[in-house]
Design a protein that fits this description.
alpha+beta; Rossmann fold; Jelly Rolls
Amino acid sequence: MTLAGLDLVFRQGVTWRARDGVPMIADLWHPVGPGPFPALLVRTAYGRALASAVTSPHPSVFARHGYLVASVDVRGRGDSGGEFVPFAHEADDGEDAVGWLAGLPECDGRVGCYGFSYQGTVQLLTAARRPRALRAIAPGMTSANPAEGFLFHNGILRLGYAASWASQLAGADGFLGGAAAGLIAERIAAEDVPTWPFWSDWLAGRCGPVADVARIDVPALVTVGWFDTFGSGGVTDLAALGAHGHLHAAPWSHMPWSPDLDDSFAMHLAFFDRHVAGRPGPPVPPARTLAIGAGWRDLPGWPPPAEPLRLWLSGAAGAATRWGTGRLTTGEEPGPPGLSVFQPAVPVPVAGGAASRVVGSTGQADQGPVQDLTEVLVFTGQVLDEALEIAGSPIAHLALSSTAPSTDGCVTLCDVAPDGSAVNVAFGAARGDGVVDVVLGPVHTVIPAGHRVRVAVAPSAFPELQLNRSAGWAQVTRALGTGSWVELPVVTPA
């Protein structure tokens, strides 16, 4: 059919078959006329009509720019046949989908892929197979490993995301609100999703095949959000892609990518025009990032050149809450440890970040309510005389000890305004039985002169991360000792 006012052809419910004969269902969009056209493919677990359009351009946008666009329900989802087993069939089915699309009479034989989250991992699994017709991919907010970087963070289950995603896939009605939101909250609290058959596998870390990113030999536009919990997975994939990788990053949470969605659309179109359609245009930079407080930057790569700035967590004995005397200092200051008592039954919550609105607030959020809790040790630096530009993944080294067999170090890097309010800049966590090293998520930010840097260390980040219950529900005494520090990748002004 031709949609009124769009001057496009829309073909709904097109059937093709995977290598094992299972029927797959697609919707096609393309300009009026016989073509052939370069093609773009999105394979989704959330209904082909959506076509990842909550973050990416709607298929009609690409079609108006001369592309044949195919939105396909993955196996066992929507109207496609077969059984849906997360990630298990996506390499084979993705390879088949590229071949099917390239062979259509409306296609000129060149195919690109796009989509975020699950649709992003689907692309990486597909591209590692090196389909002949594939020219470029654009995986966003995702990880090549369905476990680490996707369902796990440094070996800790992303409880809130995993439970909410499993509930969505299991068919909770009204997923983002109403009764379903309450149901999901109950499942998160119980760490149980009884209606999702793969929950026990996920808890055990059996999450699906890992894409061999090193095999990918086509350009890849990797989208990362500074406040998305998938950020570390994205930059890990970027590093493995080498010269094939391009970074596009901004202060987004998992979704939506607002208020900079137009920039994302333009970046995707320029990328596909160059690498799929072969149209003239400016080269896509190795990295284009939106630095918080400073605007868009084109960089020679990610991370850009930076010097490590080590700040020591001093005055730990008095560091409980943001009202304490914990300090960030440029030199180590020995002193007694900071002690706190953690009760797993009353966990410290997380504010901001998050991959799902069901989990809690997303993006940047006021950290005051969390940093008022006595379980949280807070270290604040001096007022900055000059702006501080941080670009990369900060690292924290925590000299932790605990009465429990293992303990978690949940670290939030903050920007503290002159009025004392603090917002999250980066977050990371790690679990261990002693000293814990934490790699925080990637970020590009400029903390203005007159502001201060803050580091908060908490025993949990609930419900984003699964609780550490190595001591059951018993109270746990924790100590953060001398020798703890955070290292910031600081960009020196040109």
